[in-house]
Design goal:
The chain contains seven helices and six strands; from the N terminus they run αααβββαβαβαβα. The protein is an alpha/beta fold and 255 residues long. Strands 5-4-3-6 form a four-stranded mixed beta sheet. Strands 1-2 form a two-stranded antiparallel sheet. The N and C termini lie far apart (144 Å).
Length: 255
């Protein structure tokens, strides 16, 4: 009898364990159709997470827009900076060219920058004004027969050029005391139709420093060529025919 009671007690204990009789309440599913407070809390947490996600995405979009705006601003500033740099470089190039021109004028001999008067037109000029052109220069005198003969060859060479603007002929009288009118009359008598001018004492001194005293001796028919870059040939004396003059002019214009 005693053993039967113990058996029944064990069986009851097992039943209680199987039915959850350990003191803990089993969680039953909600079948009532109403929302429990736990479910409401879960839904609220989900909504908060979705809101947080939306905020994060919005912030990311704003950051992307800000980055895009920053990129556009950077590109605009870069382009403006490059434009300003180009303008500065152009200004520097212009200043360099002006400085080169000023230096070349400063380095030029005095005979090239002395102001002269074209007795045929009355216009003033300097030999430096013909930069970029080939200039044939011949010192002469109205009383010199050798000069007139050589200038006749110059006239023929000039005629064969057909009025080319790339070559300039200039004859300079070493007679510093002659008037412009007298020299103009000389050109009319001879038919020489290019630039004639009366040299100044300063010009003759400078020419002699560059080429020697022979340049001021008309009977030796001295002449030289100024190249387009402003440099000059050596002084040549004696007669040169029209063809020889043209050959020399062509050679020096290309050097």
């Amino acid at each position: 009898m005693k053993h039967v009671k113990l058996y029944l007690l064990l069986l009851l204990a097992l039943l209680l364990v199987a039915c959850g009789g350990t003191g803990e309440t089993a969680v039953q599913p909600n079948t009532s159709g109403t929302i429990t407070s736990d479910e409401m809390m879960d839904d609220t947490m989900v909504d908060d997470e979705m809101a947080d996600s939306s905020v994060d995405e919005s912030m990311e979009d704003e950051e992307m827009m800000d980055e895009s705006m920053d990129d556009d601003t950077a590109m605009t500033e870069h382009e403006e900076g490059m434009a300003e740099l180009d303008e500065t470089m152009e200004e520097m190039d212009d200043m360099a060219e002006e400085m080169d021109d000023d230096m070349s004028m400063t380095d030029a001999p005095a005979w090239m920058t002395v102001s002269l008067t074209d007795v045929r037109s009355g216009e003033t000029f300097t030999l430096a004004d013909f930069a970029g052109k080939t200039v044939f220069v011949e010192p002469m005198a109205t009383w010199c027969t050798n000069c007139r003969r050589q200038l006749g060859n110059v006239a023929q060479a000039k005629a064969q050029l057909g009025g080319s603007e790339d070559v300039v002929f200039v004859s300079v009288s070493v007679e510093t005391n002659i008037g412009n009118g007298d020299l103009a009359n000389y050109t009319e008598e001879t038919g020489f139709d290019w630039i004639f001018a009366v040299a100044t004492p300063e010009m003759l001194i400078s020419l002699a420093d560059t080429f020697g005293q022979t340049v001021t001796n008309p009977p030796s028919t001295p002449h030289f060529i100024i190249r387009p870059d402003g440099t000059t040939t050596d002084l040549t004396t004696g007669y040169e025919g029209p063809e020889e003059i043209l050959q020399n002019l062509e050679a020096e214009s290309q050097s």
